[in-house]
Amino acid sequence: MITLPAFADAPKDQYELFDREARTIKDTFTRLEWERRLSSIPLGHSISESRCNAFFAGGRLPTVKELLTILDEEPHQEYESGAVVPKMLDALAFPDAPIGKPYWTSTPADASSMWGVNFSTGEMVKVLAIDTALSRCVR
Length: 139
Description:
By secondary structure, the chain is mostly beta strands. The protein has a domain at 39-133. 12% of the residues lie in helices and 37% in strands. The protein contains two helices and eleven strands, in the order E-E-E-E-E-H-H-E-E-E-E-E-E. It has helices at 45-55, 64-68; strands at residues 5-6, 18-19, 24-26, 33-35, 43-44, 71-80, 83-89, 103-110, 113-118, 123-128, 132-133. The strands form five sheets. It has a three-stranded antiparallel β-sheet. A two-stranded antiparallel ribbon has the order 1-2. Strands 3-4 form a two-stranded antiparallel ribbon. A hairpin with a 4-residue loop joins strand 9 (113-118) and strand 10. Mean pLDDT is 89; it is low at 1-8.
């Protein structure tokens, strides 16, 4: 198989060149390294934290501020679960990203909730710590 470097649709130079099959992508502005592809199965917060730690050394859930840095302000349309849905996440940098639930962050919203990000609307949302959500790991 031949693989070529790819550019994301994000602002010029936001991400380093990456191979389409790469497991991670590096943001040149924040210097954060992000997981590119993830499971569409929502998990609990503590399980998501463990998954990130196992994904790569130093892996963790992002803060809400960090997660908002990958929000694409120009949404595109994709098919998901048989419907056309808006996605506010770069389709090349983060292919096949599910958006059916918010994404966990490590930022507490209050005593029983964490902040999450909805990549369909671009909004920050409170997610009960006992609920499930999607997760994208960072380091």
